[in-house]
Task: inverse folding
């Protein structure tokens, strides 16, 4: 889209319109595999049915006008978003909240701040990396799982083993450093955010700056589930974001996506549904 076309969009009534995510858009966010770009994912996450397009654009200052317009048109054309129905009470409330936010100044004045901090925003989404790491023929895939809950870490390790993926576990800063420093670079990293002595977002930042690790796919696996958390992870270079509680098969679809692996044929509901994010069910259905 050219700048002139964006200008026509910019002054069109739709820039003052709020857009909501459609059921198809929700499926895209929760489907664990997407062809959307990082920018399109971020915009889809930000659209909450309350903020106008103009307000959302002001909260994405690093994005050019043309990029914003292209991303929005993609979501609209794919019917992932739709114009939200006007609610006078909601508009009045949002006006007061926005005024309060702007009065705080600085980072707090982000037009999307109040929406981004809304709790209970659950997603499971991943995209394949543009440049997959080279892998020697016959070498097994290796994952580093950074998770401080032992039961959950073992559960993820077991499920990865079903896929033929070897796993190295890390639960604190020292173990993370040790596992990521080994000669064999992992093929994927599953990264929790809240660790006892480290921050997952900081680990992600360091991975993306590391010469040997920067192309390794990273899937955030965490209970940090506000819009702001999801956007922070995707902007930081994460290839996927799966929020807890999660289903094991949803996680594995995300892993397959970032690794560029084919998904196995569907075989019904996942019998290991992780209902409380702590442990798998004890029983399994026969294959």
Result:
């Amino acid at each position: 889209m050219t700048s002139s076309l964006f200008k026509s969009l910019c002054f069109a009534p739709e820039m003052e319109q709020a857009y909501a995510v459609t059921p198809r858009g929700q499926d895209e966010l929760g489907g664990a595999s997407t062809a959307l770009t990082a920018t399109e994912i971020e915009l889809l996450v930000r659209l909450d049915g309350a903020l106008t397009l103009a307000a959302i654009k002001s909260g994405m200052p690093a994005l050019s006008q043309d990029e914003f317009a292209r991303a929005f048109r993609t979501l609209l054309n794919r019917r992932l978003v739709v114009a939200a129905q006007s609610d006078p009470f909601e508009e009045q409330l949002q006006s007061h909240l926005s005024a309060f936010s702007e009065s705080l100044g600085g980072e707090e004045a982000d037009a999307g701040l109040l929406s981004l901090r809304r709790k209970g925003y659950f997603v499971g989404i991943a995209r394949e990396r543009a440049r997959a790491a080279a892998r020697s023929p016959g070498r097994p895939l290796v994952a580093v799982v950074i998770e401080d809950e032992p039961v959950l870490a073992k559960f993820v390790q077991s499920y990865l083993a079903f896929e033929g993926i070897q796993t190295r576990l890390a639960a604190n800063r020292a173990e993370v450093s040790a596992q990521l420093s080994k000669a064999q670079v992992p093929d994927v990293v599953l990264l929790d955010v809240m660790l006892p002595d480290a921050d997952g977002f900081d680990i992600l930042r360091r991975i993306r700056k590391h010469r040997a690790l920067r192309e390794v796919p990273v899937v955030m696996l965490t209970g940090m589930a506000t819009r702001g958390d999801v956007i922070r992870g995707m902007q930081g270079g994460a290839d996927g974001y799966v929020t807890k509680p999660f289903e094991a098969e949803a996680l594995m679809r995300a892993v397959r996506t970032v690794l560029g692996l084919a998904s196995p044929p569907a075989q019904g509901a996942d019998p290991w549904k992780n209902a409380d994010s702590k442990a798998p069910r004890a029983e399994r259905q026969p294959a």
Q: What stands out?
A: The CA atoms of residues 18 and 98 lie 14 Å apart. The chain is about 40% helix and 10% strand. The radius of gyration is 20 Å. Residues 3-116 form one domain.
